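A quick word before the example. In earlier lectures we treated sequence and structure as two separate objects. From today on, think of them as two lines of the same record. Here is Esterase written that way.
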Amino acid sequence: MAVSVVLLVGFVLLSVAEYGSSQTYNAIYNFGDSITDTGNLCTGGCPSWLTTGQLPYGDTYFGRPTGRCTNGRVIVDFLADHFGLPLLPPSKASGSDFKNGANMAIIGATTMDFGFFQSLGLGNSIWNNGPFDTQIQWFQQLMPSICGSDCKNYLNNSLFIVGEFGGNDYNAPLFGGKSITEVKGYVPQIIDKITNGVETLIGLGAVDIVVPGVLPIGCFPLYLTLYQSSNQDDYDENGCLKSFNSLSVYHNGLLKQGLAVVQSKYPAVRLMYGDFYSQVTQMVQSPGSFGLKYGLKVCCGADGQGSYNYNNQARCGMSGASACGDPENYLVWDGIHLTEAAYRSIADGWLRGPYSSPAILY
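And the structure line, produced from the sequence above:
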């Protein structure tokens, strides 16, 4: 009897050590864009026009393109692994079992729907694929197969990741020629759409919800190349463009305020703010602190071109581009997405802190 107890205690301690916490979830449900998409455009094979669906995307871990916009795994893959869950299948994958998780995120997704961009005169320049409201509908369509008639109890024990949302809402007008001042005017609407979506998910039964802010877009080689300036005052101490990062800071400030309001309305819900901005900024500033060597250089792109190995006409997956041999040393994979090594570090920063407030693990 005593031996059995010792063995049982030993097993529990081993489980805690392996996963870092006794905390468990029955599933993870993710919403978002290319930062966390696990292949919703590639469920029947990646289309030939999709550069992120070509090698060397996916090569480091999967040995093939999966529709993930990096060299291997993304944040939600590491979160699933931590909690002993299978990698999240894309929600468009027919025949998949979604009881342990589903990923509604899709490349190009925005917070706002197509009508919003059409009203800005950007209808022809954006390919809007599965905005947030649509992703919630996809999830609702899956719910009968996930939890039947007892969804509240099931989803109470699931982890929800909502975003980041906003990145593509800003990319579209900025690349379409709108000024940063004009684009800042859209931020309150975008935040309202995010917080309303979070409330909808709470109504469906979500209790533990991570809502990440946007990344420091002024640190991405795509922006640094397209909007390079001869005026050194346009750059911060990390070599990032101040004006574009100010947009990210504004978005994140309003998002935190909006989440505080939602939290006050639903005290039983656990809202966690995922701080992409602070961590990625620190990774640019001090890559070595995160086990990396390069902050602003692209691993997969136009090697040796410009300051960042980036050329918009020779992007990763296109003719003229190549991948570095040591992606584990890079923060940035292709100019706008991060590497698997960076995503692993971010997942850890959300799980244990300090880059999630509060941390996922309690």
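Notice the following. Residues 303 and 309 are 5 Å apart (CA to CA). We will return to this example when we discuss secondary structure assignment.
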